[in-house]
Amino acid sequence: MGYTVLENYKVISLDKIPSTQIYATELILQHKISGPTIILAKAQTNGYGRYNRKWVSHHGNLYVSFVFESKNRDARLSYRIAVAVAETLTELNIKPSIKWPNDILVEHKKISGILIEYIENFVVIGIGINISTCPTIANYKTTKILNYTNTTIQIVLKKLSCNISKWLNAPFSMVRSRWGHFAEGLNHIVKYRDKDAQLIGLNDNGALILRIDSAYHLVYGDEIYL
Ligand code: BTN
């Protein structure tokens, strides 16, 4: 299998495949991953996101899975990655926001999605960033980097991998503060399971703190509506 190296990552570059997540999973199950690895695809026929939703994956965008060894699940990881993606866009002079837990929006339109899956002793962090195309989706609006600036997939990937390394190693207090800078709806009323809830912030373990009536609730890995 051919590969290149980017920062500290071994990069496996592929043409059109079903999904970088599926490809990464197969390598893990075949014990073929050694060290931090990036699986990069030009297009995907079966890209998917959270709740197994389809992630439309035409040529021209970034479709990537970062694979790391990880013995434990950590609810804080999704914020580290969301901040890394948001910082990558900021470096391209785009103003992103983060919709909890980790949708990346620009002008309230989705530009990037993050999917974190644990396979055996590894975590597979899938990231899709719309660069030159964005699909029309029924439930939400989408946008792409080329609506704001010119760049290439390689430039975005290089910035992203630097930011991922940086934010994976940052103290969580710094991640939380940066997440708060980008977060949509902080201190505002959002909808959670059909109830009005005030979005208070994150606790030390990465749970979302919501206030419903006068009670505080800790929420992990669900959805809110702004
Ligand atoms: C979401 O918003 O629900 C997450 C979308 C994640 C899409 C990326 S594209 C690269 C990787 N391969 C996949 O099949 N999914 C992730």
Write the layout of secondary structure elements.
Blueprint: E1 4-6, E2 9-17, H1 20-29, E3 37-44, E4 62-69, H2 77-91, E5 96-99, E6 103-106, E7 109-119, E8 122-129, H3 153-169, H4 172-182, E9 189-192, E10 195-202, E11 208-212, E12 215-219
Parallel strand pairs: 2-3
Antiparallel strand pairs: 1-2, 3-4, 4-8, 5-6, 6-7, 7-8, 9-10, 10-11, 11-12
Helix pairs in contact: 2-3, 2-4
This protein binds biotin.
How would you describe what is shown here?
The protein has 226 residues and is α+β, with helices and mostly antiparallel strands. Helices cover 23% and strands 34% of the residues. The strands form two sheets. Strands 1-2-3-4-8-7-6-5 form an eight-stranded mixed β-sheet, with helices on both faces. The chain has a four-stranded antiparallel β-sheet with strand order 9-10-11-12, with no helix packed on it. Strand 5 and strand 6 form a beta hairpin. The chain starts with a strand and ends in a 7-residue tail after the last strand. The structure holds biotin. The site of biotin (BTN) has 20 residues, from helix 1, strand 4, strand 7 and strand 8.
